């Protein structure tokens, strides 16, 4: 029903406008008595065998919603009713910002993909904290970044501000230095700046009475040598793990007319590359840290391949848009089949 009817209708309109319309619709429907229970009955798979313990946290199931969908922690409770085991909010910055000029979100229908150049549009970390203070039981990841106007030499300050503000309200942190849509941000993935940034945040973490897991989100465009550097940095700074991967700048083998739009590409074209990165990190590190696999998951089999490659958890974004919430249930059902 979703793909034949709902998606066909929604895909007739501007993708960013549809995103906000869908948010409003889900929020409105979720206020109708009984509707949240219907969503749960349709999509939530309750089974103890799906529980997954990773970096000290117990996830109800290993399928999460990736950052970028609920940037401002507006809809995390309602979205959890679609069967997700965890919701990652953000990317959040210290000060709210509009992001890049519109139009900045593009569907590539022939490729089952999306190009975005949103540019960390969000209302700022303080607003998100107010919403997260009302959380009752949803496992939340906090994805943090720097403001566009903050120079790279001061970027660490922005990450520290977000870390401190969110600390009591999220279950784990994600340091995002891999978005292609904030000028010079990916330069922070270079070995020395990245090590310094992560060590600073980790030192803040270690000073707390109880620490929170810190993960690094990386780009799929890194070379093998750069990925080996990532492994070294993760082991040296002793952060909890890696999210692989963010969007790509590659446009290889795309069919859609608007494939040359600037921004990060997500969806099916990323499926194989993100799985390759997961496998490389897992094998070369001797599985020394957990990996959350994200990128091009459009079927239960795509998710299973990432788990088999070494991921402990998976996340959806573009696949959720193209395939609908039934994908979450399908992945969890397939995981249970393998446990039978």
TrEMBL record:
Monomer. Pathway: Pyrimidine metabolism; UMP biosynthesis via de novo pathway; orotate from (S)-dihydroorotate (quinone route): step 1/1. Residues 50-337 form the Dihydroorotate dehydrogenase catalytic domain. Pfam families: DHO_dh. Keywords: Cell membrane, Flavoprotein, FMN, Membrane, Oxidoreductase, Pyrimidine biosynthesis. Its cofactor is FMN. The active site is at 179 (nucleophile). One of its GO terms (molecular function) is dihydroorotate dehydrogenase (quinone) activity. Belongs to the dihydroorotate dehydrogenase family. Type 2 subfamily. This is Dihydroorotate dehydrogenase (quinone). Binds 1 FMN per subunit. Its EC number is 1.3.5.2. GO terms for cellular component: cytoplasm; plasma membrane. It is found in: Cell membrane; Membrane. Catalyzes the conversion of dihydroorotate to orotate with quinone as electron acceptor. It catalyses: (S)-dihydroorotate + a quinone = orotate + a quinol. It comes from the Bacteria. Its main location: membrane. FMN binds at residues 67-71, 91, 143, 176, 217, 245, 267, 296, 317-318. Gene3D superfamilies: Aldolase class I (3.20.20.70).
